[in-house]
Write a structure and sequence with these properties.
alpha/beta; Aspartate Aminotransferase, domain 1; Aspartate Aminotransferase, domain 2; seven-stranded mixed sheet; four-stranded mixed sheet; 35% helix
Length: 424
């Protein structure tokens, strides 16, 4: 982008903004509008969004049904505090979510980010055991390759080596860490770990079927059934973090539906609002919720974000659920899986390419080593793809058409092939 094309607001704020996951002064492309699957830049260029706005814009950008729902809500009740007051959107959303999610989920806590929804789940688990007369159960077990957020409470659940939080080692007490039980050996190892630590462990936390920001790793559904069985055996709660995987991203409405397992607590965010406003939900099954009906000091969940259950975000989420009810999003996700598998196939066997894998509407090309230069190649080809570490991946909006997806996959094949030639 030339200096002439650089908008004044970008130049004026450049030395004052604090960017995420980057040093000061990191390049950022100025986006002035978004529609469907396209981002429009200040210089007039358009990029096909291969990221769905960090895995959120399942219906595409600026979907008219979502926009109208927010516009109508803003004209009547943009926000109201949720302590001691109620509004229709939140209550409707909570009831709809309990009907939509398999299992006997009865209570929904609405917050404003995925990390916070996990924090709330951890508090629910700890307080549940306090009420049950086991206040010593305060630890958590998570899995290598996992990611559950950037807050001080969620960072201990993330992979300390592969994740983004190594510099904070020693700041917090680490969670127990295990390998996912994908075979007899790892199942036995996890069983042994839980047996040794069950008296102090409140809950096990896992991303069902697809570990997102920890490396886009996939694993088979039967592992979730193993986790449910082991948690029941050792008296430990099971928390599913479906912030990334929920709302059709893996080919089913929720990833855990591909197994028989039902978690005790479920975390949702990202696509919950159709990717248009910050919103998260933590759902508890009936036994967990009923425990909080006891006459006990710990029977009040001590959490209440200022903007929890924001009416605008709830309006967007209800509108998003409307679209899931009336539009073929699951069929679209399943069609994307087939097309991603076919069109990323040319990357298989390229020098420097470790693996090519697809799960639902997630396509991954894993490289032997990271390369920050790849991003420029994608922008030059008219697509927005943001690799992290050694992983180049696509998580496009579910509504993307075949031609636009071919443009995305073609760009990945071209850029990775070019990188491969220079990497050897």
């Amino acid at each position: 982008m030339s200096q002439h094309d650089t908008p004044s607001w970008l130049s004026a704020g450049h030395d004052h903004i604090w960017p995420p996951y980057a040093r000061f002064g990191a390049e950022a492309l100025p986006v002035v509008s978004a529609s469907g699957v396209r981002l429009r830049l200040a210089d007039g260029r358009e990029l096909i969004d291969g990221m769905a706005n960090w895995w959120t814009a399942c219906h595409g950008h600026a979907h008219p049904h979502l926009v109208e729902a927010i516009r109508a809500q803003a004209a009547t009740l943009p926000h109201v505090m949720f302590a001691g007051l109620a509004h229709e959107g939140a209550y409707r959303l909570a009831e709809r979510l309990t009907r939509l999610v398999p299992g006997d989920f009865t209570r929904v806590f609405l917050s404003e980010s995925g990390s916070v929804s996990v924090e709330v789940a951890l508090k629910m688990a700890v307080q549940y055991w306090m009420i049950a007369g086991k206040p010593e159960k305060t630890r958590f077990l998570a899995f290598r390759g996992g990611y559950h957020g950037d807050t001080l409470g969620t960072m201990p659940l993330c992979d300390p080596e592969e994740g983004m939080h190594a510099m904070y080692a020693g700041v917090f007490s680490p969670a127990l860490l295990a390998d996912l039980p994908i075979n007899a050996q790892t199942e036995a190892a996890l069983d042994e770990t839980l047996a040794r630590h069950a008296d102090g462990v409140a809950a096990l936390v896992v991303e069902p079927l697809a570990q997102g920001a920890g490396g886009m790793r996939f694993y088979p559904p039967h592992a979730l059934d193993v986790l449910r069985r082991l948690c029941d055996r050792h008296g430990i709660l099971l928390i599913f973090d479906e912030i990334f995987t929920g709302f059709a991203r893996t080919g089913s409405m929720f990833a855990f539906e591909q197994s028989e397992a039902i978690p005790d607590i479920l975390c949702l965010s990202k696509a919950l609002s159709g990717g248009i406003l910050p919103l998260a939900a933590t759902l508890a099954r009936r036994p967990i919720a009923e425990a909080f009906e006891a006459e006990h000091p710990a029977a009040v969940l001590m959490h209440g974000p200022t903007f929890m259950a924001n009416p605008l975000a709830c309006a967007a989420a209800n509108a998003s659920l409307d679209l899931f009810e009336t539009q073929p999003r699951l069929a679209q996700a399943q069609a994307l899986e087939l097309q991603l598998k076919a069109e990323l196939e040319p990357c298989v066997g390229l020098p420097g390419v470790v693996d090519v894998r697809v799960k639902g509407a997630i396509g991954v090309v894993e490289l032997q080593r990271p390369s920050d230069a790849l991003r420029h190649g994608f922008v030059a080809r008219g697509v927005w793809v943001r690799p992290f570490g050694r992983v180049v991946y696509l998580t496009p909006p579910l509504i993307i058409g075949q031609e636009d997806l071919t443009h995305l996959t073609g760009a990945v094949v071209e850029v990775v092939t070019q990188w491969s030639r220079s990497a050897v």
